[in-house]
TrEMBL record:
This is Glutathione S-transferase. The keyword Transferase applies. Keywords: Transferase. Belongs to the GST superfamily.
Length: 234
């Protein structure tokens, strides 16, 4: 049996199946990237809820795994060389799991780099900008008389959606017929922008027909539907 006792995070979230990959997360747009990919790969894992309402992400046990105090994070008992691996940052986790399983990341060098570039696009642009739009629309926007900060993020979100829409023209997925971590990295964010934050009308989502069709294809995947709700909220 795998021994994970050296990792303080297991004191707060004990592993029932220490031989499996341990996921510490919450079903947010960032968190579901990893749960969707795990569901898609079929890799055995155990999910642990990091409850923001309880400030779990700020606990010493969680920060021992991710000093940045953000979800998701993983602990793989069977990492490189058969040794346990602790890893944080959703983009890094996507790359690791894709390489570990040999799935959803092309083996062709050019296609592989193209998939990675879209993951970086999501990490640097889509996530931060869509998240700011969501903050203003769902949580705080109504409290600010000056709408310029909100409108700045809305304008950038529209620009990013335009980039995505052009890239998806005539394609099923970002890399054509191949569904990859490029798509997985963005599905939760686009779904969240429209269906959780309720910002679809504000950003003119219906005008981005290619993105809208791509999102529908992604949401139709059973693994995506499961991953969007893992770990289950209390």
């Amino acid at each position: 049996m795998s021994d994970l006792s050296a990792f303080p995070i297991t004191q707060r979230w004990p592993a029932e199946h220490p031989e499996r990959l341990q996921l510490y997360s919450l079903p947010t747009p960032n968190g579901v990237k990893v749960s969707i990919l795990l569901e898609e790969t079929g890799l055995p894992y155990e999910a642990h809820l990091v409850d923001f309402a309880k400030d779990d992400q700020k606990s010493p046990e969680f920060e021992s795994l991710n000093p940045n105090g953000k979800i998701p994070a993983i602990l793989d008992p069977n990492g490189p060389g058969g040794q346990p691996l602790a890893l944080f940052e959703s983009g890094a986790i996507l790359l690791y799991l894709a390489e570990k399983t040999g799935q959803f990341l092309p083996s062709d060098p050019v296609a592989r780099l193209q998939a990675i570039q879209w993951v970086m696009f999501q990490m640097g642009g889509v996530g931060p900008m869509f998240g700011q739009v969501g903050f203003f629309v769902k949580f705080a926007g109504k409290d600010f008389e000056d709408k310029r900060p909100r409108d700045r993020y809305v304008a950038e979100a529209k620009r990013l959606l335009g980039v995505m829409d052009a890239a998806l023209a005539g394609k099923t997925w970002f890399l054509g017929d191949a569904y990859t971590i490029a798509d997985i990295s963005m599905l939760g964010w686009v779904n969240g922008l429209v269906n959780f934050y309720g910002a679809g009308e504000l950003v003119g989502f219906d005008a981005f027909a290619n993105v809208k069709a791509w999102l529908a294809r992604g949401l139709a995947r059973p693994a995506v539907q499961r991953g969007l709700h893992i770990p289950a909220r209390p």
